[in-house]
Predict the 3D structure of the following.
Amino acid sequence: MSFRELIAFFEDSGVADSIRENDNLFPLIESIHVLAISLVVGSILAVDLRLLGLAWMTRPVSRVTNGILPLTWCAFIAAVVSGGLLFISNATKYLANGCFVAKMILIAIAGVNMLAFHLVGARDQPRWDNDIGPPLKARFAGGLSILLWIVVVTCGRWIGFTMRIR
Amino acid sequence: MTDSALVGLSKWLSATSLSSEIQTTRWIIPTLQTIHILGVAVLFSSVILVDLRVLRALLRDAPLAQVAQRFLPVIWPVLLVLLVSGSLLIIGEPRRSLLNATFYLKMALLLVAIVLTAGLQWSFASAFWQKWQGRHVVGRLAALLSILVWCGILFAGRWIAYTQVG
């Protein structure tokens, strides 16, 4: 099955059809998506600010991270599911929209940034976990993450102005 | 205010030079909406993190007072950013909000949320509250209500786009 066939399969599905046809379903899913991305971005920001040494310095980095990231992941799953439903309702149009494609690429880059920091940068974290100002690599990862997520939200909002959904 | 007065206010607002500037410069409204949504992300996540801590669902190893001190004060400057960006959006498209019942629902919920959040913040500084036995039950109910009301604000905010007249 090619990528195009896969997209067509979802776009022609009953679920996608319902989201397109029902007047309330799209706004409802969109509201859930906004709620979820707000929590994703806001909670990641709280972690990034600690990595940058700008907020909640009385608490070790690992404790800020472990305390907040469960919320981030729950919200991220909700954002992916709701976003996925919005996507399949008009998949072809979304794929042709530059803002949508840019948003997906930027989320992937944010994921790589997080993974690289987790696997490489945070290897010696016990050494600086309590530091008020974490090392440059941690501040870099935190700063880049903030920038990426701001642009992700910007692209997301711009989709609504560059593409006619209904 | 009567409906016709609101129509008059909307007409007057859209005739101002600020409004026509916002209407005719294409990037202004998406930019304002992006700033607004980023503010929502910070404010909403901050409140939810405190509420979830009150409900003992997150950050259990951090004292409640510390979590509240980290996340509640930031709400007020962000709220100011939201009021300014929101007001500019209303000036740009007065009819979209001022003649829209969903907008007034959002504002009513916002008033409730502000009272709840200010009450929560005050309670951490209050000697009476610390000694009062009933604070756990009341605190949890208030946290639940706060989550519901803030979610309602986000839903209503997104729904404004779908309930505007004409």
Observations:
- The radius of gyration of chain B is 19 Å.
- The mean pLDDT of chain B is 92.
- Chain B touches chain A through 31 residues (CB under 8 Å).
